Amino acid sequence: MTHEAWATVMVVLPLLAAAAAFLLGGRWAAWAGNLAAPVLVAGAAVLALAVGRGEEVRHALGGWGAPLGIEWRLDGAGAAMQLATALVGWGVALFATGYEPHGDLERAPGRFWPPFLMLWAGLDALCLSADVFNLYVALELIALAAIVLVTLEGKAAAVTAAMRYLLVAQVGALCYFVGVGFLYGFGTLDLTQLGAAVRPGVPATLALALMTVGLMAKSALVPLHVWLPPAHSAAPSPASALLSGLVVAASMLVLLRLWAAVFDAVAGEALKQAIGALGVASVLWGSLLALRQERLKPLLAYSTVAQVGYLLLLVPLGGAAGAWPGGFLLLIAHALAKAAMFLAAGLILEALGDDRLPSIHGAARHMPMTVFALGIGGLTLMGLPPSGGFLAKWLLLGAALESGQWWWALALLAGGLLAAGYVFTILAHAFKEASDAPFTPVRPWMEGIPLGLAVVSLLMGLAGAPLTALLEAGAP
Amino acid sequence: MDTMADAAPIFAVAGALILVVGLFGVFDRPDLLGKIIALNVAASGAFTFLIGSAPVDEGGGPDPVLQALVLTGIVISISVTAYALSLLRRVADEAGRTTLDDEPEAGPEESPEESPEESPEDGGAEGIRDA
Amino acid sequence: MNWTGLPPVLIVLSSLLPGIAIFFLAEERTRLRVALNLGGAVLKMALTILMLWGVWRGQRFEFTFALLPGADFVLRIDALALLFVTLSSTLWLVTTVYAIGYLEDSPNRSRFFGFFSLCVTATVGIAQAGNLLTLFLFYELLTLSTYPLVVHRGTDAALDAGRVYLAYAVTAGAVLLAGIAWLYALAGPFDFAAEGGALAHVEREHRTALTAIFVLLVGGFGVKAALVPLHGWLPRAMVAPAPVSALLHAVAVVKAGAFGIVRVVYDVYGQTLAVDLGVTTPLAALAAATILYGSLQALRQDDLKRRLAYSTVSQLSYIVLGTALAGPVATIGGLVHLVHQGLMKITLFFCAGNLAETLGVHKISEMDGAGRRMPWTMTAFTVAALGMMGAPPVAGFVSEWYLGVGALAAGQGWALAVLLVSSALNASYFLPILHRAWFVERTAPWPHEEPARSGRLETSLSLLGPAVLTAALSLGAGLLAGLDGSPLGWSRFIAAQEFPL
Lengths: 476, 131, 501
Known about the structure:
By secondary structure, chain A is an all-alpha fold.
């Protein structure tokens, strides 16, 4: 199959599968997802290999190219994100199949699949999009699917969190939309063409402000993070894995692409430093709040706020060598690790009936594989070797020091220490011996899924050279 | 056609104003229905603003690309509104209220994950949540 | 890749793969677990012996893998690496036998032995690391794999000790990473090189930066090496099972810290640059302070394992002192003490574990008459304790002799005085133990005698054997120090490369 055909499959197949899951309903819906998932993993791998080899993957829908038509173009960052999406998506599909009759999904048999597959289609479309309006449509598709996923658990906390998420996401989207209008004043919507056409001035500055704020709200960066922890902890665990791992990363991907292609040339140094400072605020504040949590899922959700903060450092670090691949390495390593940890949290919920930290005492004895998954995923959050998170941190540290902005290096190190604080809080509780905690055994193959995802995030640490080569493809 | 081009700045200014009013409503209205309507008002303002500030071609005609964008935006806005309204029903059914306020039934065991954001030092985005 | 890249990787894998396999073993598959453990340990020993022969003949073994553009993962076997590899493979084999006996019938053994193997993997990785980045990688892996061992029992005390250990070790890791990243930004990627070749190209105007980086690196390694005031975690980690203490104190953790400092001084900065920057004298002073402080604290402890822990704090700094004195003879003393201290201290901890496991004795005040009840254990203990005091012909004497002569040769007579005072302090906290054990009559019953452990021998063979073996090795290393193949002979071989005459 040609690359164009694969690119089409990546978006159309999950949409078809979503429709099938919706029509079939009930237990059959799982089949639609599980049949589509391996194909999508294969497609993402084929495309990533092609991009990594330096081949152009582009596809003008209906034969109309930019600026009038819609053109899909896959850069290294998009290909890597698509691959991470596929791996997390496959893991979640397998997991949800076994998890559906239990835990926090039992109130909605079959209803998980249509929004999940819609989300997958939206994420793939976002990775392939090369113009600012296409990105907007993909973002909206992702947001709607994500909101539906939050509501699945069905209780008051979940629907309220979903409502708050919807309002924030829509205000953010509106800001972004108006920004698109301003950018169109430069005569094109294509990211690359915009980079050449954009001139500093009031329209560019307004676009920058509106789009940055809108995307920061969607990515839950401090101080616009308040909606995320309730939404991500109220969602069923497989959905939390998608939300924390991928959805937040998607709007970050758009933000970073925009800055790299368009805004970097428009913004002043002080503004870039200020945005970097907001990132640091996210890292520190998110981590501190994670440390204060008494339940596993909210802890993981606050950790997402912290991890996303690191990515804003790409704005001030700009063109420094290593910053771009480092940032995206962090993005995909975090996606895999955080998804693994949320799935593990789901298993703990199922086995122990509760995710309050004192309730997970003895988990290391009852379900060692799941605690392992939490620990290995935690390595990436802490940025400790040999995980993918470590390589990312190493690259970002190098970029900060070599561009003379050593203060970001301090923030990276401090964030790692705080992450160690909350990761080991979880592990210490899990290692503590409990005398007679009620324990429902979980199926071993389901324990293998979070462990598998966590191990992939770990092994990324050994694939640093090919991954950076991939991420550098089409990088600014 | 000239009238259209002449009126454009008025549309742009009016649209911007409506957008600001709508956004203010999203933050200010306590009830969810009000917030959803305000969101629609804001969206309409954004669309009007974009049409009004669009570049005009030689013949004085409107720009087709921007028209397409706004049309897409309207479609998305309608579907989001429809979904938001149905979600509002779920909130009313499950939580027994039509605001985002969690106070009535939030005991310490019921929703501890909500507690950190209630702390006063956790600033920002509080507009979305009602005071 | 030619075959010379293979042995370093195999040495790492020989404990990594069995370790991973052990994690997945069901708890009751004792035989298979023992087979995997011992198989890995014996294989590692065999590979090590092969490497010793190769390196002695001048062969170099190196494995390189690009982690990132400009950041290589390098495993290299040189003489210094082999000194540490040999120590840790030998002691791992012994400790594995001991741990199998010690943990008979206790829960979570698969998890324990899995992390145990990972811990040794990290240690041989540290030993063979060919540059700072690789060293850091394994250094962090060591922290991560020892944490579950420290908290193994899952009690509140264990978890507290684990938390303190982590707080020190993770912070140290961050400090170390800062230093390494800074050095890479300043000097570009570089590998370890003898005689300070690594930083030769760095401009002299970066002196302040180089000094600051030295402080960061030594601070990072100093936590594991338990340099005062970074030693607080070590005595608290005593709640861990005895094989873990042996691991922490002799095989892996503290050794990794000391080894890191040795690498930084010799193979990153080089002693010429280090002396030129004026960083060696403060380091030597810090080491001397640690030696005295550790001994003084040891005197005050009644808990046997705590006394041994403070003794480790003190003895470890002999290695650092030898390094910081920056002369050929002192270097030999420091390096050889890396091995000698390991042999003697592991013996002491095995013996302490035997006493606790067989008789329930944890405190020195409970040791009256222990020599009669457990003569083999206490003989081993006595040999090692005498070595710690520096009494000939046990190995400890050899290290202290070289350190003392090295101090004089480097024109730092005060260091000799420190060593003499420390020996006296060692004597004053070990001799009372020996006195109680051998010469005081037992009047009270033992605190908690374990019937399952007493048979034909004074305790289980798997507990007694390792202790006696390591005591014999400590004695042998002292008696046969003149041979080329002894730890001393090998240290001279290393020093000859660092200080070509």
